[in-house]
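Lab manual, section 2.4: Encoding a predicted structure.

Procedure: take the sequence of the chain (518 residues), apply the prediction step described in section 2.3, and record the output as structure tokens. A sample record is shown.
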Amino acid sequence: MEEEHDTPTRILRALRFRPKGMTITEVAKRIGVTRNSVSKHLEIMQIAGKVDVRNVGNAKLYSLAQRVPMSAFLCFTKNLILILDSAGRIVQVNDRCQQALRRSKDDLLGLTLEEAALPVVSTPEAIAVVEGLEREQVITDLRYRSNGTDLFYQMQAIPTTFDDGEKGCTLVLEDITEQKRYVRNMEFLARTAMELVDLPAEADIYEYIAEQVHELVPEARVMVTSFDEVNRQMILRSIKDNTFRENVKKIAGKDLVGTVFPITELLFSAPFHYTPETFFPLREFFLNQKPGKNQVTFYDICAGVIPKEICDIGVHTLNLGKMYGIGLVWQDQVFGIASIFFTPQEELNDRKAFESFIRQASIAIARRQTEERLRRSEHRFREVIDSSPSAAALIDADGRYTFLNRQFTDLFGYTLSDIPAGREWFKKAFRDEHARKEAIAAWKSDLAEVGRGEMRPRTFAVRCKSGGEKAILFRPVELCDGTHYVTYEDVTEERRAYQMLVDEIAELRRQLVARPAP
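Recorded output:
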């Protein structure tokens, strides 16, 4: 009996030196025990989790089980762990899990997941995984919403064998909320960066900003204002979410979108202390709390435009506890402010993503305003050209005609559709091939010899759309961006008068030559 009692220890010792495994026959020969005895002990040790077995052909190879003691696993892992028996009752829970769930071990032991009513693991999705667990480990992601915030866990359901051979299940939950948020935020910033580039000029970019901030921080109440630098005032452009907007409307007695807030000295004194630089970073304000560094009232935020009693009612009714404000700023230029409001219990979890999006949006607004200024400048430039008494054309660096003023069409009869590029112009204006080649060669040689900003006048005989021919003085000049600005002057009468004068002089010379000597 003593030898039989010592057999498990001897088996473990034999397996320790054969990490690749041994068959039952090899173990029996090694320790000098019958094959039946070794087989019986190995089966018990497998159930107890002390040895592992794998099939190699028709043979079974036994090796030491490489397992971490459960006690150490429960104490030192940062994950949440629950162990269930075969009936699905909780038989063990680690300290980290008790802290996270705010439930003691005594409250949980002996209960099923449904009876315990725990966050995350008592959801239908998690229970379905546990009930469907067989031999293989199952890994799944679970989403849980708590206090308006989405939490994400990765749950591993691991088939477990206890020392007495009973089957059970170990649940290991890893908090992957930060990983999920990071991935979601990167996808959000990538998507919105592309959308801001492609946003149509007629779209309300401030409304877009409010919508996207509300998508990023769904629990927040969002307000976005634009800044009118000329009139020194802020204009409320959007409020999200819709429920918040309707509640504000009921309290204020009107829809506040479109409200103008004048820029007063209030913003540059306590409690704001604004300077152009302070618009750039995200700032946090506590509304109607105990006096402190960032203590402000909603009345202060509204610059006195909304009566104080209405502001106080709004803060109390809507349970507003704090506000985060950040300027829509790019290169010392302020375009507006994005503000998000929370209850006293809520926090801004996606601070970096929020700030990054506001910077993207600020750059988009700056680009929009630059493009708008360029459009206005180009429009004024074209108006000046169109009102000029001289015929004029704009030709881009690729030789395409981009603008013809009214005087050009009056002079030649051609419109922009008739001569979209220089090739068509030369074909129509110079019907004679020899004259056309001379004109093209002159254009190219002048372009190579004369620098940008210098005029290169030439006179050519040009055929008009009506078929008539006119003598035209060309005055082309290349602008800094490669665009050519060309003015055209009809010198037909001058050329005709000059030719008549030349003809008269020639006739006088002929007469003088033909007169007999005295």
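Check your result against the sample. The longest strand covers residues 149-161.
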